[in-house]
From TrEMBL:
Pfam families: FAD_binding_2
Entry keyword annotation includes Cell membrane: no
GO biological process, one term: steroid metabolic process
Organism of origin: Turicimonas muris
Coiled coil: none
Protein name: FAD-binding protein
Keywords associated with the record: FAD, Flavoprotein, Oxidoreductase, Signal
Signal peptide bounds: 1-27
InterPro entries according to UniProt: FAD-dep_OxRdtase_2_FAD-bd (IPR003953), FAD-oxidoreductase_2 (IPR050315), FAD/NAD-bd_sf (IPR036188), Succ_DH/fumarate_Rdtase_cat_sf (IPR027477)
GO MF, one example: oxidoreductase activity
Amino acid sequence: MNITKSQFLKGSVASAFAIGSVASASAKALTPDTKWDDEADVVVIGFGGAGASAAITAHDAGSNVLIIEKMDAPGGNTAVSAGGFMIPDDINQARKYLAGSYQYCHAEMDEQLLDAFCKGTGELRDWLTGLGDNVGMFVYGYAGFKNLEGADTIKRYRIRGQKGGPKKGSGDCLFDLLKGAVEKRGIRTMLSTPVVAIIRDGDEVVGVEVQKNGQKQNIKAKKGVVLATGGYEFDPESLQNYTMGYGIGAIGNPGNTGDGLRLAQSMGAKLWHMNAYSAFLGVRYPGYKTSVSISPKGAGYIWVDQDGKRFSSEKVDGHCQMYVASHLDAVRHCYPRIPCYLIFDQATADKGPMGSGLGSGYAINREGHRWSKDLSKEVEMGLLKKANSIAELSKMLNLPEGQLEKTVEKWNTDVKAGKDTEFGRPIHAKGKGSYTFDGPEISAPIENGPFYAVELYPTLVNTQGGPRKNVKGQVLDAFGNPIPRLYVAGELGSMWGPIYQGACNNAESMVFGRIAGANVAQETPLK
């Protein structure tokens, strides 16, 4: 059947579905009776790193800007992230490296987006330092995939905290700089205001409908709308449809419930990278809104599945850990690695706290989560299993009799012989690690009791999928045409595939926030 773009759009609007915390995401048609309660040249939906970058840039280009945020505080994933952003030493080498990451996983790559991103990262230092006074930054990490050409040029940066100021997470340091620039410019913001629909005039976006203090309001966007709402980490239906596995948790902003995804779909947006995400193996820690990370400082630990067997090198890049766990056993009809188990000994526990050295996550940065130093709290609540022998630990986990003992014995033998014969996990570090705080010891035996185990589940840092964009930041429809006056930035519709280089989401949020802001500001205003 042959259909036109307009017919497709009409049908997609009629069938748009509602998920999550907002009402139906169906686009609302402009009528002669539509009354505007407010207006701005540019309406930015979402006040995280991408939204702030778009708003700053559109304002500086001469546009009147309004930022709308559904949560009661701004920040999004940026503020609770590790605060990292990638600035390479050489953008041409960085392009080779990043192109290699797409080829590595056979992901869809847009040449123009990659060119624009690399060029934009080369401008980030000057742009960021120009947003405030005495802005400092420092290197904290490097390339996650050493085997790719150009890896040596990759550097991950963070913003320094203000000297003499309160101690803050690195994500807050980055977002505070962006938020300060928004406030300095007097850009209007509306918090606790979910956007429930896009208002369209035919195929063209002309405004949004919001819910403010229990009342519906229509806000006119004279030049356009920028979607910067984040991903769908906390939307069960999207997770069910776009990820492998089950029991998937997340560490980021609980407001990421897929609102922008549905708003874009209501306008007929083309989706891409829906099977791509940054995700590790984390812990469901009782009493917190989100999952939490666990990161042994010692080297005597392994992962095992529900058969008590190792299934991967435990030193895969952290952003890719979920992929090794989301394995469907098509013979037994189960996910034997969900949950899986982290097994470690007292020597490893004694090396330091179990929290991630990156300091990222909502539970850490907003709810004050900390692992107890001696793990006694976690043992008492049953989160950690503790036993005097590996055999006893195996019984606590209901693993097949004798298998965990064999697995640990094989691991210990390999480590002492200097080679992991099963999965090639390095024994000692060679060269600089992914992060400046990576220790020289990578693998050690598990032999000093008592012994510990904790359940691990796939845990999202962020999703990458969403509406596809072009090099101007415009949202594309299912036929590859720009949807008039609709732009997107940030992790929503990210350019990244399944193999993700850390610190590139924050970088992309700022680079394409700036691109979207600059281009929407050039639109001819509606009357």
